[in-house]
């Protein structure tokens, strides 16, 4: 028996590029083999529970626009109805994974004990739904940013009681993720930052955050959770100065606390843009350090300075992202989570399906373009040619030499180097052949 929310809609199917059905896949064929692996296994798509089902369509200037049968989300009956609708959508999309925050699944009850009880009850219910569905859990996380208790941070909070509440909340969410067979657990530090140094002790807050992460890793091993622990870089919002600003910042922090072999990164396209980077930059930085874990796929509005969380539709951007993911060996336990939401005017249940179908098709086109570029090898050949001089034994010897010896060599050999073209435009034209 269905909820009726998606009445009249059939499961999305691959129909190929001639298809005109707006709810059909034109590029995403789960069984198509790309570089020796099924497309579904490469992309590992996940639906974001919060944006698809918990978000009510509000923005800073207006209230909710969505009128869903499970709104208001204030009791367990509606929470279970929301789960029913969610799994109906997962089945319509053939989604292999989903992701959640605790506050997406359960109603806010006020006390920690009550929230934990409802989280355990709803995850038991979700576990039953999973038994009849192909959809698994990519990752769980704790919402430690929406409620007013988190206004000064969670692990970095000046109040030790809030630190304790945060630790207890994360323990409960790791337990729930473990129970549901999650492949990862994400620490999303939405308010781990500060507004002004006038009331902030940077050293103390950094130490609290580092110790908190260490406790999470210790607990993972204690309970035998085999999933990856991930942290998600996010600049500027909501705190003016976020401690987890970008991939490089997070990597440095993890190395400081000796967690570089225990924690990887969950990277979001929208956050990369807010940090002044491209998505492929963030992916390449994480991959270079062996810390690429998973991605949140969305896009921002380039006329807005805000994290608009729109579904991806830019194939060239997506192709370059997957190029670096494939180059790094692809996902192991991570995947592609659509941390994306409908526009406030997209009111119909059909819009939820269409948005995900379009995003999945965009990613499929990007993945195939990325694979074609790697198989062609043009970019790799260009890199090899550009750095070929470093293959010379004398060049390699410089890296273990000293300034005086290098100076003597320059004088002795009369080295007078001339600049060489970086050929950027030719490489951009090369990429355009595939996208």
Query: How many separate domains make up the residues?
Result: 2
CATH class placement of the largest domain: Alpha Beta
- The topology string of helices and strands comes to EEHEHHEHHEHEEHEEHEHHEHEHHHHH
Amino-to-carboxy terminus distance = 43 Å
The number of strands is: 12
**Known CATH architecture of the largest domain:** Alpha-Beta Barrel
Strand order, main sheet: write it out.
Answer: 3-4-5-6-8-10-11-12
Could you tell me the mean pLDDT? Answer: 96
- Overall structural class, as computed from helix and strand content, comes to alpha/beta
According to CATH, the homologous superfamily of the largest domain is: Divalent-metal-dependent TIM barrel enzymes
Keywords: Carbohydrate metabolism, Cytoplasm, Isomerase, Magnesium, Metal-binding, Xylose metabolism
Organism: Jannaschia seohaensis
EC number: 5.3.1.5
Binding site for Mg(2+) 2: 268, 271, 307, 309
Concise summary:
The chain has 435 residues and is an alpha/beta fold. Helices cover 45% and strands 10% of the residues.
Can you walk through the features of this model?
The chain is an alpha/beta fold. It has two domains: 33-376, Divalent-metal-dependent TIM barrel enzymes (TIM Barrel); 394-432, no CATH class. The chain is 45% helix and 10% strand. It has helices at 39-43, 49-54, 76-93, 102-105, 112-131, 160-179, 202-223, 247-256, 269-274, 279-288, 315-327, 349-376, 378-386, 393-398, 403-413, 424-432; strands at residues 33-34, 37-38, 45-48, 97-101, 136-141, 184-187, 193-194, 228-231, 241-242, 263-268, 292-296, 336-338. The strands form three sheets. The chain has an eight-stranded parallel barrel, surrounded by five helices. Strands 1-2 form a two-stranded antiparallel sheet. A two-stranded antiparallel ribbon has the order 7-9. The protein is globular, with a radius of gyration of 24 Å. Mg(2+) 1 binds at residues 232, 268, 296, 339. Its EC number is 5.3.1.5.
């Amino acid at each position: 028996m269905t909820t009726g929310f998606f009445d009249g809609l059939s499961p999305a199917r691959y129909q190929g590029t001639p298809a005109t059905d707006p709810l059909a896949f034109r590029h995403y064929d789960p069984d198509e083999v790309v570089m020796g692996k099924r497309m579904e296994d490469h992309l590992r798509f996940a639906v974001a529970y919060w944006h698809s089902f918990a978000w009510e369509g509000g923005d800073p200037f207006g209230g909710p626009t969505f009128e869903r049968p499970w709104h208001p989300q204030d009791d367990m009956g509606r929470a279970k109805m929301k789960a029913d609708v969610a799994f109906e959508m997962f089945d319509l999309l053939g989604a292999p994974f989903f992701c959640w925050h605790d506050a997406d699944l359960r109603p806010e009850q006020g006390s920690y004990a009550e929230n934990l009880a409802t989280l355990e009850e709803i995850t038991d219910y979700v576990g039953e739904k999973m038994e009849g569905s192909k959809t698994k859990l990519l990752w769980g996380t704790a919402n430690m940013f929406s409620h007013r208790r988190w206004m000064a941070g969670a692990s970095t909070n000046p109040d030790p009681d809030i630190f304790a509440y945060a630790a207890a909340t994360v323990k409960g969410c790791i337990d729930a993720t473990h129970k549901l067979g999650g492949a990862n657990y994400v620490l999303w530090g939405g308010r781990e930052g500060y507004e002004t140094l006038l009331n902030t002790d940077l050293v103390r807050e950094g130490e609290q955050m580092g110790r908190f992460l260490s406790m999470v890793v210790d607990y993972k091993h204690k309970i035998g959770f085999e999933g990856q622990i991930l942290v998600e870089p996010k600049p500027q919002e909501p705190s003016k100065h976020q401690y987890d600003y970008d991939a490089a910042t997070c990597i440095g922090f993890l190395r400081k606390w000796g967690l570089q072999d225990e924690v990887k990164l969950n990277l979001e396209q929208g956050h990369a843009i807010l940090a002044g980077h491209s998505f492929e930059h963030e992916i390449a930085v994480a991959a270079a350090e062996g810390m690429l874990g998973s991605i949140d796929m969305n896009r921002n509005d380039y006329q807005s300075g805000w994290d608009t969380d729109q579904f991806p539709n830019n194939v060239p951007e997506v192709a370059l992202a997957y190029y670096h993911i494939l180059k790094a060996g692809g996902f192991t336990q991570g995947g592609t989570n659509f941390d994306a939401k409908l526009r406030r005017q997209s009111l119909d249940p059909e819009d939820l399906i269409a948005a995900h179908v379009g995003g999945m098709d965009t990613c499929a086109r990007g993945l195939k373009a990325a694979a074609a570029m790697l198989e062609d090898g043009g970019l790799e050949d260009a890199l090899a040619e550009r750095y070929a001089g470093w293959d010379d034994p004398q060049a390699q010897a410089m890296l273990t030499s000293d300034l005086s010896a290098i100076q003597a060599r320059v004088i002795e050999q009369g080295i007078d180097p001339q600049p060489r073209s970086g050929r950027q435009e030719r490489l951009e034209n090369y990429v355009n052949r595939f996208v």
